[in-house]
Amino acid sequence: MVTEQTVKILSVNVGLPREVTWQGKVVTTGIFKEPVNEPVMLRTLNLDGDGQADLTVHGGITKAVYAYPSEHYGYWRAELPRVDLSWGMFGENFTTEGLLEEAVYIGDRFRIGETEVIVTEPRMPCYKLGIKFGRADIIKRFLASRRTGFYFAVAREGMASAGAAVELIGREQQEISVADITRLYAFEKDDLETLRRAIEVKALPENWKGYFQHQLQKQLS
Length: 221
Description:
By secondary structure, the chain is an alpha+beta fold. It is 25% helix and 26% strand. The protein contains 6 helices and 12 strands. The strands form 3 sheets. It has an 8-stranded mixed sheet with strand order 4-1-7-6-10-9-8-12. A two-stranded antiparallel sheet has the order 2-3. A two-stranded antiparallel sheet has the order 5-11. The longest helix has 15 residues, at 206-220. The protein is globular. The protein starts with 7 loop residues before the first strand and ends with a helix.
């Protein structure tokens, strides 16, 4: 579970979609985020000054804000020593301290400044992460590392800023963590007991529940 250690937002990062050329094609992406020094309004679908390009797979109520643990940057600096890894490099809106996937549970509710957010799901990488890093292999490496970060739904709008404390104010359950969802998706698809429990987690988005239900049926057939 989240401990009494310092838990805060180190950086708030935003960026509007832009066109880039990737593998000979023009692509629109919102993965390029830059830190902002002033407080930013966090709304139901995103932060002011931020946006997602393809709303069929990015954004929406359950993926309004993407958080990535600052603790993972050390791992990636060792893995990618020639890459400049500044806050926001993974496309995250919040670079956090003290929130790791194994200790954050789906449905956890946090107060951040004026706002309240709810943890919904891990981030699954797509080809646009490859665009940001300029290398397609980062997608497999990102998932294999299990350092996915996670998404928030916004329960109460308000101003968010770097340095804000993150306070756990509610916990739906203490069985299915963010790391568990990634594990079930990519590594241990035959863990029937945890699949069953995941499907029952209220805050888990319906597309995840449907996917896990299909996995469960496939294992049992």
